[in-house]
Request: fold
Amino acid sequence: MNAYGGFAQVRKVPVLAMVGRQTGDCGWPNGFYRRSNEPAVYRLSGQGVAPNIGADICHVVNEQQMAAFGGFRKVVVVELISDLGRGRRAVTECKNP
Reply:
């Protein structure tokens, strides 16, 4: 802490109020997501070390493709700052199911 100016630099707060949904140490579970401030839908998929958390993320290209995946009722709307790509590869366009 001396390198950062000592413990006097630490601000103490009664509650840590961070924006977003806590997903633990891992990324978001596989599924379909949309940030609250944008229309783009992302499909998170694949197999990883943790159950239901893979390495793939793709952008659903249009409404017809989303319908083929099962429809917009599957889409979870998340906070605009949510890091959907955490622990995943680069975003690609989704292939048709």
